[in-house]
Structures are given as C-alpha cells and as structure tokens.
Amino acid sequence: MIPRFVLHAQHRSGWQKAAIRVGAVLLGFLISAVLIMATGKDPVVVFGTMFSGAFGSKWGFSETLVRTTPLLLCSLGIALASRMQLWNIGAEGQFYMGGLGAAFVALKFSTMPAPVLLPTMAIAGFVLGGLWCLLPGIARAYLGTSETITTLLLNYVALNWVAYLVYGPWKDPKGHNFPLSPTFSESATLPVLTGRVHIGLILALIMAGVFWWVLQNSRWGYEIRVIGESPAAAGYAGMNITRNILLVMFVSGAMAGLGGMMEVSGVLHRLQKDISPGYGYTAIIITYLAQRNPLAMILVAFLFGGLQAGAYSIQTKGVPLATAYMIQGMILFCVLGAELFTQSRLRFVWRKEVA
Amino acid sequence: MTGDIAFSTIAITTLTAAVIAGTTILFAALGEVLSERAGVLNLGVEGMMLVGAVVGYIATLTTGSPWAGIVAAAFAGGALASIHAALTVSLRANQVVSGLALTLFGTGFSSFIGKPYVGVPLPNAFHKVAIPGLAKLPFVGPILFDQNPLVYLSFVLVPALWYWLYRTRPGLNLRAVGENPAAADAMGLNVFLTRYLYVIAGGALAGIAGAHLSLAVAPSWVEGMTAGRGWVAVALVIFATWNPAKAILGAYLFGGVEALTFRLQAMGSTFSVFFLNMTPYLFTIAVLLIATSRARKGRGDLPAALGTAYDREMR
Question: Across the interface, do A325 and B111 touch by the CB < 8 Å criterion?
C-alpha cells in the first residue's frame, strides 16, 4: 500500500474554470509578494504604490489606458497565429518596425493633410510589421524552420535598426544629440480622447470585436482552427495550409505594426530608441491568460496595462521597472500550473502497487 | 613582414575572443541539448542565464570565490528549470508557454535582485590560466590554452556529454525517453524522473553559462546582459542536431561572429555599430534556415517526443 495522488478527469463549468484561473493569478501575486519581502521591501507598500499608480488617480487611469492599446493590438496578432499553433514571439520587433514605417511616412510627407497622412502612416506600419512576421512565416511554410526562434531573433534586428535611424540619418538636428527623430507635424498626430489617451484605443477595441467575429463565425476563422488542431485533416479537406501560414503570420505581425504606428503617432509624436517597454512580450502572456479570446483580451490587456503603468510608479520606491516582468512571469507560471485542474482534480488515494 | 606579424596578432586576439564568447553559448547549448534529448523544450534559457549571471555575481562578491559563484549559479539555473519541469512534466503544461514564462520571470527577477549590484566592481573574477607547455604552442596555444578555467571545463564537458549520450546505458535511456516515452516506460524506465533530472541539469548549465558572462567575459552585472545569447543557444541546438560534439563547433562559429563584430567596432569601422550588432542574430537565422532545410531531407536527429508531455493514461 503506497499513498499517491491521482488525477481524475472532471468536468468543470465555465465559472469554475474562471475561478481557478483567477485564483492562480492571485497566487502569482502572493508568491511575488514573498519574493519582494525576501529582498527587504514591504510588498504592501510596493503593490499599494503600483495599484494607486495604475488606477488610483485620473492620470494613472489614463496611463493604464495608454498602455492598453498597444498591448491589445499585439495580443490580437499573437492570438491569431496561436490559433494555428504558430508562436509569434516577435511582436516586440514588429511593433518597432511598424513605428519605423509610420515615422518614415510622417517625416517624409509631413505637409500632407491629416486625413491622407494618418491612413498612409497606418498602412506603412501595418505592412512593415506584417512583413517582419511574414519572413519567419515563409521560412516556416517552405523550410519548416521554427517560427518561435526566428520571430524572436528578428526583435534584436528591428531594435538595432530603429536605433541606427534615430542615432544616424533620422536624428533631430535640433535634438541636442539625443537619439530622437524630429517631432512629427500636427497632421501626423492621432487625435486625442483625453490626456495622453488617443483615438487608437477605440480602433483597438473595434479590432478586438472584428477578430472575435472572424475567429468565431467566419469560414476563415474555422479554417485556421482546423489547421491548428489537425493539419492532416485540414489537408484532406482541401484547405491550403501554406497560404494560410503566410496570411496568418502577415496579419499577426501587421497588428503589432499597427500598434507601433499608433504609439509613435498618438503617444510619442516621434521615433525614438525605446518605443516600447516590452509590450510585445507582455502581450504573449495576455494572449494565453485570455485563452486567445479577443473579448477576454480587452479585460486582460487593461489589467496588464495597469501593471505596466504601476511598475513606473514603483521605481520611486527603488524597485526596478523589470519587476513587472517578474510578477508577470510568476502569474503565468501559476496559471499554467492551474490549467490541468480546469479539466481534472487531484485525489489522494491509498493504492496497491501495480505492475 | 611586420604586416604579417600584425595580422597574426589580430587573428589570435580575435580567435581568442571567439572562444571566450563561444563558451558562454556552448554551456547554454549543452544544457538545452540535455533537456531536449529528454523530450522537453526549454525556451527559458535566456531567463536562466540571466539569473545565473546575477546569482553567480552576488555569490562571488560575498564569498570572494568565483567557484562559489559558479556553484550558486548552477543551483539557481537548476532551481528555475525545476519550475519548468514541474509545470511541463507533472502538470503537462505547454512547453513553449512555460519556457517563455521562465524567460520573462528570469529577466524580471534578475533585474530585481541585481539592482543594488549594478556598477559594483568585482574583485575576484576568473582570470586566464595558461596551461604549461600547451599554451606555448604556436597560434593555437594562446587561443585554446591560455583561457579562463571555465573554458577548460567546457573542453572536458563536451566529450564527456557526447560519451554519456552515445556510449552509456543512462545515455541510451535518456534518448529513449525523448524518442518514445511510452516504450521507455514499458521498458521500466522512469520517464518522469529522467525528464526532471535532465531538465534541471540543463538549467544548471544555463546558469553556469550566465555566470561565465558575469564572472569571466565581462566581470560585472548589467541588466539584461545576456542580450539574446540564450536564444542563440536554442537555435544552436538545432544547428548541432542535438549532438554535443557539433555544438562546440557551432558555438565557436557564433562566438567568432560576435568577436569579429566587436573587433570591427574597435578598429573604428565606418559601418554603423548597429548593423554590426545585428549580425550575430541574422547569422543565427541564416544558420537555422540551412539547418532546418537539411533536416527536412532526413538528416536531422530531432527527438521524436520533443515538445509533448507524457501522460501515462494515454499509453
């Protein structure tokens, strides 16, 4: 007789699943609190500062919304690819390429009127971000090269490219040698809703709705799901897998690119060396936590926008910005670990040794 | 004549730097070979390296011994890998997502605990130790035998791991677990224990790789100092077709690219530093494309069960 834990398949309702996941997120915060405590900082103060920095004031709340937009757009792109079991972890680089494309248009055609200039910038960001993800897509479709590693490696290339431009050819001659491009003209700037929150937020929300509809109800959304779950079955059904890989990867990167365009046009009003504090990476977690559901993603992106905005305010307490990554990673660990228990439960049994 | 001497001096310094840079990637790649041979893809290498780098640095600073730093880094890397093992082996979580979580966590955690140590000088870094006799060999002597002790450790580790994998019973068992866990289970092997052990061993090596960076290559702690080397190591494993002996060649090739771009910068190349910085990543992608198109023709050695959790009920 030996004691052991046995997993039993268990049907759980949607509410139970949600409760398990929320519990896992809370556990992630709790373990992070222990880690913060271990370095001699008071977790109540750190989390308190973070929370009030994100939601406690009108300014903090608007900062959270400012960060929700890029996070949501990147997540939508990543979710589309992951429905097909493609891992685009290069949203960060695609975001930078989108910003680069938009900045190119904004700086070259600064005198064009806004109704022409802004859509052109959006298209440039969309296309450049898309191409940046299409390249790994081509390698995946025709050579079978893992898109996970190639998309990630291209991030470093994109970041260096933007750095080259803002330190070199695009540097603002009046910028006191800082790595910044000249400020965009008025017509290259997205309209503002309130504070720093720009119209991109509305567009991102509409996009989430469109993605939800496409994935849920359209034939294309169905094809993507079938190819992801069983490429063989999709092949028998006459679905074109290669074409879908290319298309999905392009749109996936294009969403991040659009996010980059909105960031430079709506928030920064110029291209600079750092246009993202890791939105592309955080978006991977958001995608997973929201179970690739575009509507759930809105809520999760908002909460993680708060986490990022809050992380800025804890810097005043001597805690580095990257702590937000630590907390995000820990939350993801807990949710991953809890996932099995949304379909099964653990039972402690006394059982005779078999075999 | 003097031109020749100048050239060979430059060649020797560049190749010496290539071996040093390559060794960092080599340790990480060897660790990933072990993990993937057991059937567990670990994309957390970058995070484990960062934590290894900072923990090794702190341990060296407090104990005064870089060897204590290495041991601490190996423990830290192994501890992080054990989280990945628990999630993917026992709880059957998605290996890609769990590995990404590990990288994110490691990036944040290393910055968090390393904050007070940024810019603190390290008195007890690893120094070069010339091997008597061998170091005097022309050309190869200074490149291979006048290096830091961790480079020598890697010289021993590569053949040892190769022998372990291909010539011993435990190595055969390891490959069986990565190839066909159900069959390995039927043979009486403990699939779960095997996977735990090699994932943790792989993490320990990634930790050592990070510590090599912070204790020998550039004795210091800088946030995010691995700068993507963990990802390069993951790519290298594919290039090396999961073979430790090929990993060393690949690692020095990557190290060579890194050393060369550094040298070009130092010589005041007119080519922008940012384009030079891109080259190791572009080179990695190029190599990956070649390696995978070759693997498609059936010359790969990909562990068949890589990326999938083993569920006894599904046998």
Answer: yes
